[in-house]
Amino acid sequence: MNNTETKNRNPVKDALEILPENIRDSIAQRINDIISYEPVIGIMGKTGAGKSSLCNAIFKGDICAVSDVAACTRETQEMRIQFGKRSVRLIDIPGVGENAERDVEYEQLYRDLLPQLDLVLWVIKGDDRAFSADEHFYKNVLAPAGGEAKTLFVLNQVDKIEPFREWDVVNARPSPSQMQNILDKEAYITQRFGFTDHPVIAVAASEGYNVTHLVEAMVRALPKHAQSGVASQVRDEHKTRTVTEEATEGFGDTVDRVLDDIIDNTLPAPLRVVVKAAKKAVVSGLKKAWNWIFG
After folding, report:
1. Which residues have CB under 8 Å from 294's CB, separation 6+?
2. pLDDT tens-digit readout, 23-81
3. How far is it, in rounded angstroms, from Cα 213 to Cα 221?
4. What GO cellular component term, any one, is given (predicted)?
5. Could you tell me if 107 and 134 are in contact, meaning their C-beta atoms sit under 8 angstroms apart?
């Protein structure tokens, strides 16, 4: 096979060749929808929590503002991060506890936004000690609306946690004393909010500390159909083997469900058995092409 033929090959099309011709087009369209899916992440936090620096530390694409966002107040900003053909939408959600009157307004905003979001990054300043409003919103607004499974708490700017003068600038990491205080803060936040779905992740975005660990936690917390879209947009230094393997498995599981749906609803019973026997090879072929598709 010459270089032109190799370059023009389409692994997705190749993987579907073993399926009956009459269902290939519908399956190819559904798989294209999966590949093209644009994940939506809400970034919530008070002013000064370092949301912008966190996004810049995580993602490699250009950030562009998106106007005319439906169901959003003027305090909510939507951005699109794009690198290559794929993109991720970020919705900057105002934090609570800064204005009592606005907090009442935000309750409905959060309820309206939550169904649109694949993940919520709730960013808390490392030295913040006022959690009453946050706790109220989490327990009385987000959690009852199904937000517990899709909310990941990020303790940012941990380089400011006491004793902040002991921060190891050369190696960009906390001192042993700081680390103990960080662990205590993580435990305190977990206890106050009472969540168990995902651990609190401590980072210092501007210092590059622990951002890779956060990215890995993000991919694990995302619904399977959104994992690859996010993994394709993170900075290369954060695209670890854990990230790519988690996203690849999520992609494979999503494709598997699509194949089952189409096979069960379009093929006669005798043919279903035969095609489902070939399904494993199709999913395996597409998973092997993950880097070609999303890399």
Report:
1. 35, 86, 228, 229, 231, 232, 247, 251
2. 999 999 999 999 999 999 999 888 888 998 999 999 996 666 554 344 334 467 888 98
3. 12
4. cytosol
5. no
